Amino acid sequence: MEYLPNFSPEILAQSDPLRAVNRRDFNWKPKDTLPPGAHSFNAFGNPPDGNYAFFGRFPADYTVPMHWHTNDVWVAIIEGSMTIRRTGLPDVRIERGGFFFLPGKLKYIADCREECVFLAYGYEPFDIFYLNKDDDPRNKK
Known about the structure:
Layout: H1 9-12, E1 29-30, E2 39-46, E3 50-58, E4 62-68, E5 73-79, E6 81-85, E7 92-95, E8 99-102, E9 108-112, E10 116-122, E11 129-130
Antiparallel strand pairs: 1-2, 2-3, 3-10, 4-9, 4-11, 5-8, 5-10, 6-7, 6-9
């Protein structure tokens, strides 16, 4: 299992087994599975393989269209807030320091009106499927 693969070589060369990185040093990378503007930093494992943790960052006024994940995902909001919208159910706003559980196959829209940073983790492979295939940025290449 690979821990914190995006660490700099200097950090990985340390003899201390404790691996730590501050947010200002995250190696943010664009997320090609999400609309433009989303970034992530892989903190643990490899999401498509399961048993992972990654930080996500969405800019202000950002929306992920109706989608779902095959498996359960746990999410903690680090900065900003996120609103989860579902058909026929009340919207749920999760604020800084809040936590939510996304059961596998739950269809939802994620909105951030201000920049938001979150930690997502799960034990089974992470994927994303869009209700409307035209919303999937992988289909626009």
